[in-house]
Design goal:
Layout lengths: L15 H19 L5 H14 L6 H20 L3 H29 L2 H11 L3 H38 L3 H19 L10 H6 L8 H24 L17 H25 L3 H19 L6 H15 L4 H20 L2 H11 L3 H16 L5 H13 L7 H18 L4 H10 L3 H27 L1
Helix pairs in contact: 1-2, 1-4, 2-4, 2-13, 3-13, 4-6, 4-11, 4-12, 4-13, 5-6, 5-10, 6-7, 6-10, 6-18, 7-9, 9-17, 9-19, 10-11, 13-16, 15-16, 15-17, 15-19, 16-17, 17-19, 18-19
């Protein structure tokens, strides 16, 4: 008798999603390495089947994005998007579910490591003068390594610490706002440079002449700028005076430094493989991340045998992947919709609009950044708008380096992450605090986002 599916993805029917997603990842990897985009179509169909098998557990936003993707496919057919163009769209889109899958493996290894919990407690249990900087850095590291899972983990540690140690309600309110803002503002600018992030991996392939190493100086400069402005606004926040920092005894500096080393090794190895071996960055990540996860798991196995440790990793991954169906659906559909909409609009039309408007390169960059933020406030994901605007305008030939135009889109995107009620970060923080998303996002971080965009806009207008 066939077993019923469970939330953990166990049983015979629970194995069906794994049997669908794993071949899709293999096909996506072969496509990346060989450039055989014909494989992307079957891979995308397998991912669609994976999503449909988990239909009952899909969140409403995932179902909406799936319906939107269907409408866009019909639109592509109606306007005559060629099969070759569709294969390229599918190829770029297929990396997203593959990335979620390999990051799930890394998540299993990380959650079993005492280093992660120790680093989390270390950055949370700091005196107010150092708290913002270390929380922002910690959020950056947790976010890059574990995506929103890392964001949630650090947020939970911070909120538990504040609730357990604040001497009164006023201090608890002040500390809650400051730690949540620091974690949000530290997490968001990871999209400027992280080779493990969705943004970089969606936008970089649009510019064939731009590599991750080539973009890295721009991304790191934007990171420093974003954190500096965010820190300046943190200094304006009310402070709880004469409240000693919490000390659980579980936080250690060496744990934080260990996570930094993990990040450097993974990102550095992927970047070096792209730069010196000619391996596409995205393909390198699909190899390096699970390989490092296996080594990390074995290093933290304790008295457990290597075989049992790896079996546990495999079992946990199989259990968690079906739980990521909504995340995989939203990511895949958002990337697909953005790329497909850009393909539906002829480059000549975009060029005519830009020329008629008379926009300089700097003005165009500013418009794109502000539009991404504005549209995110009415429910349109920055994944869609960022991909759409960059892909549509990239072929126009504006007089601006590709890296700078890509950075303009990422600045708008990163500001949306800390204010838009439609982003995962604000939804998670709002749920954890049981407060309106408008309070956590727009009220607490709106001024910071606007300041970042205004200063960046002035810079674009001066230079271009």
């Amino acid at each position: 008798m066939m077993s019923d599916p469970t939330p953990d993805g166990t049983g015979l029917r629970g194995a069906i999603p794994i049997a669908l997603i794993m071949p899709a990842i293999v096909l996506a990897f072969i496509d990346l390495v060989t450039g055989q985009h014909a494989l992307a179509g079957p891979a995308l169909i397998l991912v669609l089947a994976f999503v449909l098998v988990g239909w009952r557990g899909l969140k409403p936003n995932a179902r909406i994005m799936l319906a939107m993707s269907a409408v866009v496919v019909i639109g592509c057919i109606a306007v005559g998007v060629s099969w070759a163009e569709f294969q390229v769209i599918a190829s770029r889109t297929m990396y997203l579910p593959a990335l979620v899958a390999v990051m799930t493996v890394l998540r299993v290894a990380a959650e079993g490591s005492p280093m992660v919990t120790g680093a989390g407690h270390f950055v949370v249990e700091q005196p107010p003068s150092r708290r913002f900087g270390l929380l922002a850095i910690g959020s950056q590291i947790f976010g890059v390594l574990l995506n929103v899972g890392g964001f949630l983990l650090l947020l939970n540690i911070a909120l538990r610490t504040v609730n357990a140690t604040a001497p009164n309600e006023r201090v608890r309110e002040i500390q809650t706002r400051r730690v949540v803002n620091a974690i949000l503002r530290g997490f968001a600018p990871g999209i400027y440079w992280s080779p493990l992030g969705v943004a970089i991996n969606l936008l970089l392939p649009i510019f064939p002449g731009l590599t991750w190493f080539g973009f890295l100086p721009y991304g790191l400069s934007a990171l420093a700028f974003y954190l500096a402005v965010s820190w300046a606004f943190d200094l304006l926040e009310p402070r709880a005076r004469n409240v000693p920092p919490a000390k659980s005894g579980r936080g250690r500096l060496q744990d934080l430094l260990g996570l930094v080393l993990v990040l450097v090794v993974i990102a550095g190895a992927a970047g070096l493989a792209e730069h010196f071996l000619g391996v596409p960055l995205r393909a390198a990540i699909l190899i390096i991340v699970p390989s490092y996860a296996v080594l990390w798991m074995l290093a933290n196995r304790g008295a457990v045998s290597p075989g049992a440790s790896l079996a546990r990793m495999g079992g946990e991954t199989i259990r968690l992947l079906p739980r990521s169906t909504s995340e995989i659906c939203v990511m895949t559909a958002s990337g697909f919709v953005g790329l497909a909409l850009a393909a539906m609009v002829p480059a000549s039309v975009v060029e005519a609009i830009v020329l008629k408007a008379g926009f300089s390169a700097g003005v165009l960059a500013v418009v794109v950044a502000w539009l991404i933020l504005a549209l995110s406030m009415v429910g349109i994901s920055p994944v869609i708008t960022g991909t759409l605007f960059v892909a549509a305008i990239a072929g126009v030939g504006i007089d601006m380096p590709d890296a700078m135009f890509m950075l303009a889109a990422l600045i708008g995107w990163s500001c949306a992450v800390i204010v838009s009620p439609m982003t995962a970060t604000i939804a998670i923080a709002s749920g954890a605090l049981d407060r309106p998303a408008s309070q956590v996002g727009l009220r607490w971080n709106g001024a910071t986002a606007v300041a970042i965009l205004v200063i960046a806009s002035i810079g674009f207008l001066i230079v271009y």
